[in-house]
Structures are given as C-alpha cells and as structure tokens.
Amino acid sequence: MRKLLCLCLMLLSLHISAQSITGFAPANIPNQLKLEASFEAALNPKNLDTWMQKMAAEPHWVGTEYGRKNAEWMAEQFKSWGYDTKIETYQILFPYPKIRELKLVSPVPYEAKLTAVPVEGDPYTAQGEALLPSYNAFSTDGDVEAELVFVNYGIPRDYEELEKLGIDVKGKIVIAKYYGSWRGIKPKLAAEKGAIGCIIYSDPEDDGYVRGDVYPEGAFKNKTGVQRGSVMDMPLYPGDVLTPGYAATKDAKRLDRKDAPTITKIPVLPISYEDAQPLLEALKGPVAPDSWRGGLPITYHIGPGPAKVHLKLEFDWQLTPAHNVIATLKGSKYPDQWVMRGNHHDAWVHGANDPVSGMIALMEEARVVGELAKKGQRPKRTLVYAAWDAEEPGLIGSTEWVEDHEKELQQKLVAYINTDGNGRGFFGAGGSHTLQAMVDEVADIVKDPQTGVSIKERRIARQLVSGGNSNFELSALGSGSDYTPFIQHAGIASLNLGFGGENAGGEYHTIYDTYPHYKRFKDPEFAYGIALANAAGRIVLRLANADVIPLEFTQWQTTVSEYLKEIMDETDKMRKDVEKHNSLVSKNAFELASDPREVFVKPAVKEEIPYLDFSTVQNSLAKLARDIEAFESVSVEALPAPKQEVLNKAMLVTEQVLTDMSGLPRRPWFRHQLYAPGFYTGYGVKTLPGIREAVEQKDWKEAQEQIQKLSGTFDLMDAHINTLIYLSK
C-alpha cells in the first residue's frame, strides 16, 4: 500500500512538473499549481448562500440606506481577511421617478397599472413601497400624447421595414419590445426618427410564458413583471452624465442637466405585457410581419393609431452618493504592479442574480486568497478587489473611479478581471486576446460541477453541437459591465467571466430577482458560484505570481486578422447587395412582386459601394505577424530575473498601445481601436469600430482614413513587439 501511495505521488509530481503555464519558469510551476489546489480546496459554497441572503434581503439601488450598509459590511469582511480597505464615494446624478402615467386615450380608455404583483412563497416581492418603481433611468421628463406605432424591437432594420410600408413615426409615440438590442438604443433611434415618446414592453415570447412556466411556478416573467434599466446613451459615454471624462468628486465642475448629451431626448417608460396588450390590441393599420409577431393572444398590427396614448413622466434629479469598496493586498515582490478584480454591488431591486451572485463569488475568492496570504503565501503582485456602486444606471461607480485614478492605473495595472451575474451552465469569457492563452490553460483545469469534465471541454462541446468550431476563444469586449472604463478608456487588458446558459428566466431587473428565485432556478447549490470563484481566482493568482506577465501575441494577431477579414467580406457583400437591389429597382421587380391591394412605396436607388484600399493595414499586419513569431520563439520564462523585471514593465502597457483618441471620431470617450460598443446594437461589439462606423455611415473618405489610422496603430504595436524582442536579448 505504501509503495502504491509513493508511486501515485511520484506520478502526480511528474504530471505537475510536465505541465507548462504561460509566464512561469518550469521550476516555479509546481508551487503555483499547489497554491491553486489549496485555493480551490478552501472555497466554501455555504458562504455564498449566507452572503446572498444578507446582501439581497432588501432593495439596494444606488443611494439607498441598504446599499450603503452592504458597502460597509463588505468593507469589514475584506478588512477581516487582511486587506487594506476603504470606501471611495462619488456624487453622481441619479433620477428617481416621481410621476409615471400611461393611458390609452382612444379608442377604448385604459390606464396602465405599472405595478408588479407579489407572488406566493416569495416574501421579498411583498415589500411594498420599499421596492423601486419600474422605470427607465435617464429618460427625460415629458408629457406627450400622440398616436401609437408598433416598431418591433425598434432597431434599424425595423425602421427600414416601416419605410417600405410608408409608415413614419414622426410626431408619434412608439412601442417596442425588449431584446433585439440594448434598451437605450430604442429611444435613441426613435427620437432620431422623429418620435416624441417611447414605451418598451416585455413580450412573453422573449421571456414569458412562451419560454416556460412563469414565476412562481417557473423561472419566467409573469404578466405583471417589468424590466427596469438605464437608457442613458452609454455608446456615447458611460458614467456620471454631468462629468464626462472626469471624476464626479464632491467639488467637480458639472454640466447643466439640460446640456447633458446622454440623457434621452424623449420620455421612455417600461411596462409589463399585461399593460402592453390593451395598447397593442387597439392598433390597426398593416398586420405586422411574421418576424414581428410576439406571444400575446392578439393580431399584431403596426398602426399608426387609431390607438392614442398619453405618457407623462417626471423625475427627482438629485446628486446621490455612490460607494465603491476598494480592498488592497500588497504584493510581496512587485507592489507597484497591480492585478484588479471587480463586480458591482448595486441592484435595481434585490438583485440576487444581478449582481449579488457574482459579488459573493468574488468575496469568497478574496477570502481564500487573504487566508493563504496570512499563512505566508502572499501574491507577488498587489491585488485590488473592488465592489462597484451605481453600475446599473450607467457603469457609473467604476467609470468615475477609473477617471479619478487613470494615470496611476496606466502605470501600474497589469489587468482587470470582471464578473457580474452568474448561474448554472457553460463558461463564458471575453476580453483582451493577449490573455487568451492564459485563460485557455485555466479553463482546462477547472472542473464543471455537473459533468466533471473541464469547463473548457464542456464549452467546446456546446460550440460543436451549435455548429461552431473546436477552438477556445475569448469574445471581444464592447460594453455592458464594469470592464468598460478599464479597456475602452484607460487601455487596460481586461476580462469578463461568468457561467450561464442553463439558468434562463424572466427575473432580470424585476422585483422577482430574489434569493428564493435564485435558489430554485439559477444555481441551487451555488456550485457555479464556486466554479466562478475558482476560475477567476486562478487567473488572478497566475497574473499575480507569473515570472513574466502572461501575454501571448500569436492568438491576438490571428484574431485581429479575422476581424479585418470580416470587414473586407462585409464591404464586398454590401456592394453586391446594392448592385442586386438597384437591378431589381430598374426592372420594377419590387412593385410587380407586391400585393396591388396593399400600400406600396417604391424603393429608391441606393448609392453604389466603392472599393476600399485595405493594403496598408494588411501589410502592417503581415509585418507584425513576422515580428510576433520572432518574439514568441524566445523563452522569456527562462530569462534572468533582472531581464524579466524590465520586460514586465514594458509588457504592462501593451493594451495602451492599442488605444487612440483619433480612432473613434464620433465617440471620443471610447479610445480602443479594436473593439467598442455598437451604436445600434447597444452592448453588441463592433470590432475595428473606427472603420465599421464610417462604413455604416457611408462616409468612404472617413473609412479610408480610419484604415490608415488602424495601420498606424498596428505599426505602433509592431514597434512595441520589437522593443520586447530587444529587452529579451
């Protein structure tokens, strides 16, 4: 028996020593893997359960007393785990609803209830006036009355369909379904089309009874549930609306509210499908196309009218304190190199899933790291854990903090790792592609709680079944959570991690996002909370302890080349589509193919798409690929420690090379050249956005200039790689 045990230990030792980890010298790998094993073994799901019950016990949107108490309680926990902890507070503009009125004036009067009902078995839904009313933050005040028009999801292709039908929303109030884009795009586009008001409702086809049983029987949205949420124009800039580009400190100079460009131009109100049905039933006009029809038991008409609605909104616009908890564990060897981990703590109501499920995973991760540090296993680099406030109304807490500390972050921060809501299912990871190799290695170690295989293997299996490939790849980051100011503004390598796909429901931003709902339908045993803490924690520990910051450039270059090919293919497709369209117009095909008894609007001839010259950026990428190959051939892990230290300082600013204020002329806050949030896809990602947005605007001169600027960015990256090669000699 003793011989067998010795043999097993010897084989384990050989396996550990045979493993390679990006950024680690072979001699240091066994200790790192043992540290990670100790970290994983100490994670306790009971803590997550207990902490969720505490943090989600009462509503805690920004500025609430319970939100402040949660921040102070978390700060005390971090202190007890050995972190130097403080609360940094910013004064941000936050609108609270005073008046919310929506009435169907004609043909049949109806007054919207605008109230979700408590459900049996969930006492949190019966907290009455403590619950935040349903509304869209950063809607402008307004009192409007007009005919109603149904615009499906309210995105560009829906308005193209309306134009074909000869329907104009100018001077009208539109009603749009949630989903299809980020919610703030719907009023933004409606206002650009001339609408004077916007209503957003949740259709049961998307997250109600069509998807499954509704709460409390099932996880999906019942007829009274309403999704709250911000409609701030975050694709222009996130953060406090009155302090664009600088921190909302107590004495900061602030814009006049009427001059704040990210507040909507028209009033916006979210409603339930119970309140939406009478409005939609009152519409006449053309029957909606098949793809527009939802799950309500009605015939979906578009209008305009004869339904006429009256919408009145008024808000209390006050400066509100946003409390960020910042906990720091000083590094043992490189205290001026930081690794940062964050999750927000504010919610629209109770927020059990969004954000508490992610916040408690971060806390358990930080607890174990702190306990290991007390036992002498302090990380080499400084760790900074953050609990952000005011994420929900517009990524405000994190954005103000980054704007306040930007210069220091650009000098010290190696990477930022973000999480948000979390649940049962598959591993999702997006971020800076230089970190892809390192995340791949971690995903190959962490086990899926339900199947026992690695989270990488399970994710790839799902990709294959869905028609995808067998590669583990990071998705590109646009916007949508607290990584945004780090990567898009400060140029910090970033990741966004989470599990999901088997935790669908309709509780998002409603009064039903509670502890009982989460325990029944999201992650009953908190097994995926532990999986998230395990994956994120290993990534943090590797970034903190690596001999050389674990960046890998080959996969980065491959991915960026694919982004360029996508744009080239898209412009070719656009050209062919326009040629086909114009040919059909010239043949009168659209009119002949239409129903003579229906309204027909003859399509106009479209502007031809010119050929763009991509040769400069292609040449830059080709040279960059050769130099990356040269650098990757160097075994940087084997370099002497002094050379590694110099190399680390140079590698720390890699992502900043890829940021350029001139890259996004329409949105100067977003500096990142490789990806940014889309204008009309909300939090969808636009890769190589400078070129894409110019192409979408059909500004061909600007598109060609953006190609040149991107080529210059890749030339700068090439110079950076050559610097790394020089420092490695």
Short structural summary:
By secondary structure, the protein is α/β, with parallel strands linked by helices.
3D structure, described in words:
This protein is an alpha/beta fold and 729 residues long. It is 40% helix and 17% strand. It has helices at 2-18, 29-42, 45-55, 65-80, 156-164, 185-192, 204-207, 273-281, 352-374, 396-412, 436-443, 455-465, 484-490, 515-521, 527-545, 554-586, 589-593, 615-632, 641-651, 654-657, 689-696, 700-728; strands spanning 84-106, 110-111, 136-137, 142-150, 173-177, 197-201, 229-230, 268-271, 308-329, 334-344, 381-388, 413-419, 425-431, 494-501, 675-677, 685-687. Strands 1, 2, 4, 5, 6, 8, 9, 10, 11, 12, 13 and 14 form a 12-stranded mixed β-sheet that branches. Strands 3-7 form a two-stranded parallel ribbon. Helix 2 (29-42) runs antiparallel to helix 15 and helix 3 crosses helix 9 (352-374). The two termini are 51 Å apart. Mean pLDDT is 95; it is low at 1-17.
Q: Please tally the helical runs, counting DSSP H or I stretches of 4 or more residues.
A: 22
Shape category: globular
Which strand-content bin applies to the residues? Answer: 15-25%
Quaternary state of the chains: single chain
Biggest sheet, open or closed, and with what strands and sense? 12 strands, mixed
Which structural category fits the helices and strands?
Answer: alpha/beta
Helix content: 25-40%
Which spans have pLDDT < 50 for at least 5 consecutive residues?
1-17
User: How far is the first residue's CA from the last residue's CA?
Assistant: 51 Å
Average pLDDT figure = 95
Q: Over all CA atoms, what is the radius of gyration?
A: 27 Å
Number of strands: 16
